[in-house]
Amino acid sequence: MPDDKRAPSPMDRVWDFFISVKLAIITLIVLAVTSIFGTIIEQNQPPEKYHQIYEDWAFALMDRINLFDMYHAWWFLLLLVLFTVNLACCTIDRFPRMWKVVRNPRTKLDGNLEKTLSQVDRWKKKGTVPDWASKYAEALSSAFAKPVATEEGGEVHLYAESGVASRFGVYVTHLSIIIIFIGAIVGNVLGFKGYVNIPEGESVSQVPVRGGSRVQELGFTVRCNSFRVETYPSGQPKAYISDLTVLEGGREVLRKKDVVVNDPLQYKGIWFYQSSYGQAGGATAQVAVRKADGSPMGTLALPPNEPMRIEGYGTVRGVNYDQNLQGNGPALQLVVDRPGKPSAEFWVYQSRPDLDRQRNDSLVFSFSGLNVRQFTGLQVAKDPGVNVVWLGCALMVVGIIMAFFLSHQRVWVRLSKSQDGRVEVVLAGAASRNRLAFEKRFEKIQTGVKAAEL
Amino acid sequence: MSNVILFNLTTVLFGVASALYIGALYANNEKISAFGTWVCVLAAVVSTAALGVRWYESYQMGIGRIPVTNLYESLVFFAWSINLFYLVVERKYGSRTFGAFVMPIAFATMLFAIKGDSSIQPLVPALQSYWLHAHVITCFVGYAAFAVSAGAALMYLLKAKQEEAKVSAGVIGLLPACKTLDDLVYRSIIWGFPFLTAGIITGAAWANYAWGTYWSWDPKETWSLIVWLVYAAFLHARITRGWYGKRAAILSIAGFLATVMCYLGVNLVLSGLHSYGGG
After folding, report:
1. Closest CA in chain A for residue B209
2. C-beta of residue B249 within 8 angstroms of C-beta of residue B180
3. B196-236 pLDDT, tens per residue?
4. Concatenated DSSP letters of B72-102
5. How large is the angle between the packed helices B71-93 and B2-27, nearest 10 degrees?
6. CA distance A22 to B236
7. Separation in Å, CA of B121 to nearest CA in chain A
8. Tens digits of per-residue pLDDT, A59-101?
């Protein structure tokens, strides 16, 4: 061809570079190999940690090429861009050709085509070309697929195909990758991720955004009503449970009592994920106070080691707590100081509220439990691109299945008048993949077509 | 814990099957390898029963859940998948010589498993999700397919070397033809690749539902991507550039090494979400 002799222009060269599969394979391998670094070098750690591991010069070098946050480094992103451009160019280059082939299939079985096909069979029949053409068209319909007939110069060509979708599999797969990237970019630009701790009874209406100093206004308020941990009998954690309420303008609009790991709270596109927990402030001990005659005086909330004054009596202090004192369950050690009397120190058990009567004091103390205030730690995320990502993922699975498990199968029949006056029939077939399976199918088509009688 | 006894028995059966397949190659005796097939079938029955019993026992302990949630369980499930995938391949290709290269992988996996902690532990909160089932099953079918591919690739390399030297005697001479092996290398990968893809996607969906991030460049995620990239490179090289034979076999083995790193290396060497406990 004359075109090939002309020297390619620089534009052509750039284009040829971007449409090459070699570039695709090299990019895939380079992405795979560079990704390994990020799994060996722990990412996004404080600099002190890296200084402990690496020499100064190595730290400086690695820091310079962003190896400590390499998946966001310019060169890694550039690799991803190169990968995407390559993908898009390959599609632009090849798709129209494939589309043309699909839209205008070679419906005529000429000699040139026949030579390239692996499955060919020929036989002769008495009768006329049009009669046999309509018979074989019928037979082909039931044995394989409905054919189109073309007549030319006394010859009739039948053409039938199946699994043409298989040709699109690779493009669906490639498109799905671009869609996933678009979804990821949308999420990064329009969404946010943050983390917040809410102590029991308190609420938040803004969230600090991860990896920055920005604070995101939620547009509503989230209150943590309570938090609790459930454990298995062995003591291993079974569930972390937050009871959350969403408020707007001070009014309760949504309540979810059991926000657990794998079951987040969602409101107005913002998701709250159960992520961690902890103690907010110290624990307070609940101590019930009664007079000697048994009449109740109220309950004291004792912070650790802080003396609490009781008018006309003295001060009480909780100095020690034991979850299981001498096998009798939770117990609190109290110190009572009364003016003019020696300091008294004794234990009260949660399981034995009347034990303190033994002291023969004017007041009886009993321990009704420890009150620990917890906070719940929530991941907060808004990602408007996530559904685009899922669409891309679904397309990817569909595309891969189309590409690998469907096969574009084509069958031709040519009928012509032979020298001896009979009708010469040629049956031929081809498959885009899995030729072995097609061989077997072709045999069945052969039998089906040959069984036709006038 | 009768499931552990059954798994120990499975290990023995895999060992016996490996020995029979290898012995059959050396003795050039089809009867021995046919016996190996029956041992594999028996192992499939015993290991399936073991999984069922373990599942049932977890319910008896009041922590009922699918037995694919820790290292021991994932290893025995991996071996179970390899065995089943192998039996299908053996039937489809009508050759028992693959067994000598694939069953030792299942046997080694079981040996590694029974050395570890086999107790049934309750599920930590992060694992309590229906995504667990889809994620683990798709991943391990993919891994098993890659294991079979790598076994076939190894056979290919041995066979091709011998063919180059123009000898056909000995054990290697009994291996299937290079063309068949090369076909199996490719065909296993086109089964493994969609399953791995589905495994990564279900993992991402799960992560998104548990933490609000479908991709966080965690070492496990990154290694699964590396595996995916290697096999994607394999498929492009094969389909559009006609990489057959030796180069394809080497890429298949590289892919399986990356798979082993993704599956075991990350848990044992590196840290990340998959080696942690709580949410």
Report:
1. A262
2. no
3. 999 999 999 999 999 899 999 988 999 999 999 999 999 99
4. HHHHHHHHHHHHHHHHHHHHHHT-STTHHHH
5. 40
6. 9
7. 9
8. 999 999 888 999 989 999 999 999 999 999 999 999 999 999 8
